[in-house]
Amino acid sequence: MDPMRIVEAQCEQNDSRILMLVMDGLGDLPRETDGLTPLAAARKPNLDRLAGEGACGRFDPVGPGLTPGSGPGHLGLFGYDPTEYEIGRGVLSAVGIDFPLRRGDVAARFNFCTLDPAGRITDRRAGRISTDENRRLVGLLRRIPASAGVEIHVETESEHRGVLVLRGDGLGHALADTDPQHVGVEPLPVAARDEASARTGEIVSRFVSEARQALAGEARANGLLLRGFDTLPSIPSMPERFKLRPVCVAQYPMYRGLARLVGMDVPRPPASLQALPAAVRDHMPGHDFCFLHVKYTDKAGEDGDFDRKRAVVEETDALLPALLAIGFDVVVVAADHSTPVAHKAHSWHPVPALVWAPGRVFRDLVETFTEQACVHGALGRMPLRYLLPEALACAGKVAKFGA
Amino acid sequence: MDPMRIVEAQCEQNDSRILMLVMDGLGDLPRETDGLTPLAAARKPNLDRLAGEGACGRFDPVGPGLTPGSGPGHLGLFGYDPTEYEIGRGVLSAVGIDFPLRRGDVAARFNFCTLDPAGRITDRRAGRISTDENRRLVGLLRRIPASAGVEIHVETESEHRGVLVLRGDGLGHALADTDPQHVGVEPLPVAARDEASARTGEIVSRFVSEARQALAGEARANGLLLRGFDTLPSIPSMPERFKLRPVCVAQYPMYRGLARLVGMDVPRPPASLQALPAAVRDHMPGHDFCFLHVKYTDKAGEDGDFDRKRAVVEETDALLPALLAIGFDVVVVAADHSTPVAHKAHSWHPVPALVWAPGRVFRDLVETFTEQACVHGALGRMPLRYLLPEALACAGKVAKFGA
Question: What's this model's pTM, rounded to 2 decimal places?
Answer without folding.
Answer: 0.91
